[in-house]
């Protein structure tokens, strides 16, 4: 995806689930690195982080170990005090569905961050 650049930001959108916070942005992180490689190589490199099991990585590669996949390394994740909902995103001109990364402006990010961290 050509919308990804380092350094960057990741807004964590929760699409489904029960209770409060479904269909909202619940956190943000700083994007440190984007790594493209083969499934075995990336799994070996990042398995200590415990985020994905081998079967998850293999499935993401379409069950083909010769396919390139992408890994993201991020840091400084902050959970928002108040989840930022679709209504707020719509007022900022950001519309779903959120199935892949997309670029937003600095002012859009600042508005989301300010609301999520209750800085106003």
SSE string: EEHHEHH
Task: Report strand %.
Answer: 25-35%
Residue stretches low in confidence (pLDDT < 50, at least 5 long) are: none
Strand order in the largest sheet: 1-2-3
The major sheet is characterized as: 3 strands, antiparallel
Class by SSE composition:
alpha+beta
Calculate the mean pLDDT score and round it. Answer: 89
Gross morphology: elongated
Radius of gyration from the CA trace? 16 Å
User: Which bin fits the share of residues in helices?
Assistant: 25-40%
Q: Span between N and C termini?
A: 33 Å
Counted by DSSP, the helix tally is 4
Task: Tell me the number of strands.
Answer: 3
What does this structure look like?
This protein is of the alpha+beta class and 120 residues long. The chain is built from four helices and three strands. It has helices at 39-46, 54-60, 86-91, 106-116, and strands spanning 8-14, 24-37, 69-85. Strands 1-2-3 form a three-stranded antiparallel β-sheet. The relative contact order is 0.21. The model has no long low-confidence stretch (mean pLDDT 89).
Q: Layout of helices and strands, plus pairs?
A:
Layout: E1 8-14, E2 24-37, H1 39-46, H2 54-60, E3 69-85, H3 86-91, H4 106-116
Antiparallel strand pairs: 1-2, 2-3
């Amino acid at each position: 995806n050509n919308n990804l650049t380092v350094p960057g930001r990741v807004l964590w959108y929760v699409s489904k689930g029960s209770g409060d916070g479904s269909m909202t942005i619940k956190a943000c992180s700083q994007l440190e690195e984007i790594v493209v490689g083969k499934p075995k190589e990336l799994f070996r490199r990042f398995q200590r982080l415990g985020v994905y099991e081998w079967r998850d990585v293999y499935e993401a590669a379409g069950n083909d170990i010769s396919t390139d996949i992408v890994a993201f390394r991020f840091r400084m994740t902050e959970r928002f005090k108040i989840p930022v909902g679709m209504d707020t995103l719509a007022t900022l001109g950001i519309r779903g569905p959120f199935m892949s990364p997309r670029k937003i402006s600095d002012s859009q990010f600042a508005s989301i961050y300010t609301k999520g961290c209750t800085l106003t």
